[in-house]
Amino acid sequence: GAGDLVFLTGDSHSFWANRLADAQGRPAGIELGTAGISSPGDFMASGFGPELSPRLDRAFAEHVEEVVWTDNMHQGYVRIELERSRGLASFIAVDTVLSPSFRVETLRRFAFARSDGAVDYL
After folding, report:
1. Residues 15, 85: contact at Cβ < 8 Å?
2. pLDDT for position 50
3. Which of 31, 36, 44, 87 could bridge across to 82 with cysteines, CB 3.0–4.6 Å?
4. Range with the lowest mean pLDDT among 1-10, 14-23, 52-61, 89-98?
5. Burial environment of residue 88 by CB neighbours within 10 A (0 to 12, 13 to 18, 19 or more)
6. In the structure, what pLDDT confidence band is assigned to residue 41 with cuts at 50, 70 and 90?
7. What is the DSSP string of the chain?
8. Is the predicted pLDDT of residue 56 greater than 70, yes or no?
9. Is residue 47 packed enough to be buried (19+ CB in 10 Å), middle (13-18) or exposed (0-12)?
């Protein structure tokens, strides 16, 4: 089976960096998920707020094996830079979608590479 897949997903209302595995637990690749650019994050829309949301994000990463990192507070996009056997994913938040003038903030960056038939975060 393929272990070197890079899945790009979107509009999940959250940012995600996940490790993927097949049913036997063998590496299948990575997933880079982006929040919606104009919709609130799941936790913020549920009223969890800026104090509880980061704690819930950390709990996901600590207790769900596939989750490397997640952010449910921000809206934005993922910028992907690819080379032949490696890449860099930058999770970019925007401060507003209500105005043509906005600021961006890089929340997190993940380098990843293909090695021995598998892709994983460095």
Report:
1. no
2. 82
3. 87
4. 1-10
5. middle
6. low
7. --B-EEEEE--SSSEEEEEEE-TTS-EEEEEEE---SSS--HHHHTT-HHHHHHHHHHHHHHH-TTEEEEE-S-EEEEEEEE-SSEEEEEEEEES-SSSS---EEEEEEEEEEEETTEEEE-
8. yes
9. exposed
Q: Which structure tokens are listed for 2? A: 């393929």
Residue 120 identity = D
Q: Rounded distance, CA 16 to CA 106, Å? A: 14
CA distance linking residue 112 with residue 4, whole number of Å: 11
CA max distance for the chain: 48
How long a stretch of residues is the chain? 122
What's the structural domain count of the chain?
Answer: 1
Which structural domain range is residue 61 located in? 5-121
